[in-house]
Write a structure and sequence with these properties.
- By secondary structure, this protein is an all-beta fold.
- The chain has one domain.
- It has no helices and 7 strands.
- The strands form 2 sheets. The chain has a 4-stranded antiparallel beta sheet with strand order 5-6-4-7, with no helix packed on it.
- A hairpin with a 6-residue loop joins β1 and β2.
- The radius of gyration is 13 Å and the shape is globular.
- The protein starts with a strand and ends in a 17-residue tail after the last strand.
- The model has no long low-confidence stretch (mean pLDDT 91).
Length: 83
């Protein structure tokens, strides 16, 4: 996993290669989740799967962990979006 810094907000980011072969910028803090088909939260697993889920605080309830796409937490996500 490659780590760099966001050019907009200056926070560290991980680059995770998704199953489709694209690199996705993600926050560096792992998030515990429970799978929820059709859920509004999207996370990227270390294996590169993008999943619909809900986050959980209790590790006993978690089905796994992943990373939030950085554009969901960045203060200027549109500055790097392709037009």
């Amino acid at each position: 996993m490659k780590t760099s810094t966001c050019k907009s907000c200056g926070k560290p980011i991980h680059w995770i290669r998704t199953r489709s072969g694209r690199s996705m910028p993600c926050d560096t803090r792992p998030v515990s989740y429970r799978i929820k088909p059709g859920g509004s939260t999207k996370l990227v697993t270390p294996a590169g799967d993008v999943i619909s889920c809900e986050t959980v605080d209790d590790p006993a309830e978690a089905q796994g962990w992943g990373y939030a796409p950085h554009w969901s937490t960045c203060n200027a996500p549109d500055s790097f979006r392709k037009r």
